[in-house]
User: What shape does this take?
Amino acid sequence: MDGVNSVVSRSPRLLILLSLWASWAPAEVENKIYWTAERGIARSDMDASNKEWIIEADVRRPGSIAIDEVNEKIYWTHHDWNKPVTIHRSDLDGSDLEVISRAHGEGHQAAPLDVHIDIDSQDRKIYITVTWSHGDYTSGSVSGFDLDVWDGSEERALDLYDLWLWRHAETPYEAAVDPVNRKLYFIDRDFLTSFDIDSFITDNGVLLEVTGNPGKRVYPVTAMAGYGDAMTWQDIHDLEIDPKSGVTYWSAPGGIGKGRPEEGREGVSLLMEVPARQIAVDSEEEDLYWAKGGEIFRAALEGSSSDLVIDASGFRDRPGMSNIVDMAVFKGRIYWSDRAGTLQSCNRDGKDLQTLFAPAVRSPAGIFVDSDRGKILWGDRLAGSVFEAGLDGSDIQVLASDFVEVSDVLATEDRVYWSDNERGEIWFSELDGSGAEAAIQLGRPPIEGGFERPPMSISYDSASHRLCWSRRGDIFCADHEGSNVDSLHDGDESSLYYILDIAVDGQQGFIYWTAEGGLWRMDLDGREKEHFSARDIYWTDPSPIALSTDGVFWITWFSWLHGDGTWAYLQHSNKDGTDARWIPEGGESFEVQLFGDEISDLPESLALYLPVKTAVHHSSRPLDTALHPNCPNPFNASTEIPYTLSRSGLASLVIYNALGQRIETLVNEVQRAGSYTVSWRLGSARPLSSGVYFCRLVTPGEVLTRKLTLLR
Assistant: This one.
């Protein structure tokens, strides 16, 4: 993408952030709504006019891969929910990338779940299996196309060269070509099935029909899986055939199987009892490569002990899921696609790592507007990076990378914070991304009920210089370095659902959050909690929240139980929950206002940018100079005194006794506008008696005083 100065080559889906930033706005940007979606990052005026996409994400995700050994091209598939299947090809180094088709499944009323390809370089054919979801059931297809009719000069619908060999509820999956025995294999729900390639009738390279038996059931899937009748077709992870010998290999929960299934049970055996997911055959060196998580191993075809070739971790191995999606081996190099959306290769020894395909912006999440510096910041769930750009999307920079799932980002006057949702960590760095370190290390949260874990939302209390975050149903706060962690909300009966987003109003002393139960708030010590919401909020969809000086903004989602549609509405209320209303008036759904009808245009995180003074979601610039209450008060040995400066200048913070005598000067220096906390610590060398003391803050144009009570 133009303007990207740094690209992440290694990294590792839902994320949700709504920020409302304002103050001292640049004159050229006024009253803007920023949002992230699958398509990228966009903005519009507050009335939804002047909509523009300022950053386009590359949503292509390499899936199944295959190599045309004659022309030395690599082919890979990409599919999205409710989108046509596309096939791409490039040279082996990733250059000359082109889209071969955009139309496979065009107009199909189902959603593609899995797409697998294999190439018969000898016969110049590519075979594709597609598994479709129809809601209550699945079906699939096997298609064959001539490689040489795809010259890439124009976009052609695949069904122009499509031969439907199989289409029923048995759901074909994982195609593999046996050029030795002239067979095309695929797995359906119950059996390994084969076709005789020589039975295909073609005309000028276009497949027309198949003669004779349209398919032979060769071997039961349950026997291949190695665990008896409990296994299903999906438990065969990968199917590969040695193009020299015609021997079939497959990976399953029981390990890697090997044999000639056409010969029956006598022709099938367990080669290696290893937890393999994806496999690839190197017929030249007679080696077998297998992957687990992000690691690739090598073993001899006869099944000798295996060695680690390369650790290609990026998205990290999750239970029941592998980082590596598919593999292939050709001319001494291993090629693989991963769930982070990249295509990579290395040599047989794991060296000379090369990236063939790795877009910079892939899945934006957690957008934040830094109006002081005229920047937008966001995380990327797939790239595992923190990005920064101008308010118009120009000058994209990578501030931090090599994370797993960045779900939320915020900036203060001198720092950037972000959450790594998969690892359960909150990091911070300087504004330029340097000096990154983990402030909070919570550990990876569990997944319950089969749903994805909700994202960690982070927010900042500019008044007390405290960082706050949500984790599942809990809310915590700590100082800006990550120490002195306080649990403010433990997911008790007042909120039975996962927290989706939080916002801190440090000026008025409240924390707001959204959950499936609606909209909530509590005071900063977590004692007083109240629930208010104009409509229910469904936790399975993003429900961002933001604060202005006069109210609360949030997104409400409505979903039909039978999947007939989902709508998002922007709402606003006073900070006590009264006078709730739709924006705009009349309740037009938010995606109709801003996002059109495309699913990829639906909002995932949102930032409202208003050029007025506001107490904002992730505010770093205080609204006014203020001397806040010390804590604890009364105190014994020490107390923390927070204060904020609206502009830079000389600041002094002095302690006086009841007689007006100076006791101690805590601050006397030029300070930048921002939030500060100073500790007043009493030791044995300071024999102060119990009583009332006064803290006095003096800045240009401001003199503020607060009473402190010492109890010995």
User: Anything to note?
Assistant: The radius of gyration is 30 Å.
